[in-house]
Amino acid sequence: MQSIYLRPINYQGFARRRKTDPHSIAKWNALHSSFIDYLIDRNHRTGGYVEEYYFSQCLRRFLRSGADDHVDLRNPNFFASDYIVIDHDGQLYPTDEARMLSRIGRVDLSIGTVMAGIDQAKIRLLNSASLNNFDPDCIHCAYQPFCGTDVVDDLSRDGRIDMARIDTWFCQRHMHVFDKVVEVISRRDEAALRLVAKWARVPSWGDHMIPVHT
Questions:
Q1: At what angle do helices 190-199 and 169-185 cross, to 10 degrees?
Q2: Are 137 and 171 within 8 A, CB to CB?
Q3: Which secondary structure element, helix H or strand E, spans residue 185, and what is its range?
Q4: CA angle in degrees (0–180, nearest 5) for 111-73-33
């Protein structure tokens, strides 16, 4: 096993029934940061290779132009352009998270049906908020070129998409991740430098070639 995707509980679905604060992100950020430090130390100590998938995605996004393999980090992140989710009843959704929100009755994010086709007006409405280029917080953020948007998550937690970006769970999570990226690549110890090279998919650094995912 060379990749672990450490993920917070998905708040869009039935997990929201847990008595947790939908806006609490500090505990998760602390856990994620300590896990990255643990992996750096472990890999250096054992000579192995294990990545945290999302941190590696953000690292490559930060260091390499055009690294947009993960949908959450795309900008613009337009709906119904790469894929559409078809539910068992023929309802169409822009993402599985949108289907989950509709299933629990939070908000109807269906975008049509198999029989009737896609509701283009609804797609345009969703897509109007699916980029960060003109957000008043994002335009002053150093991480704006590497970050994305998550309209569905905003709706699930706040019931609206016009919150100040800095107050959203999505923003606070990614500010932490990119801060951690900068902190790690700024280190000068061998353990961090070696792992940054491997997680960034630099094949010439290390004892073996790292597979490049395309």
A1: 120
A2: yes
A3: helix 169-185
A4: 130
**Best CA proximity match to 147, nearest among 157, 156, 137:** 137
User: Radius of gyration (Cα) for the chain, nearest Å?
Assistant: 19
Phi, psi torsion values for 38, nearest 5 degrees: -60, -45
Tell me 104's DSSP state: T
Residue-by-residue pLDDT tens, the chain, 214 positions? 899 999 887 766 666 666 566 567 899 999 999 999 999 999 999 988 899 999 999 999 898 766 666 777 888 888 988 889 999 999 999 998 899 888 888 889 999 999 999 999 999 988 988 889 999 999 999 999 999 888 888 888 888 888 899 999 999 999 999 999 999 999 988 889 888 888 888 765 444 444 444 4
For 158-183, b where at least 16 C-beta lie within 10 A, e where not — what string?
A: eeebebebeebbbbbbbbbbbebbee
* Nearest Cα to Cα of residue 134 among 144, 124, 122: 144
**DSSP state, 86?**
E
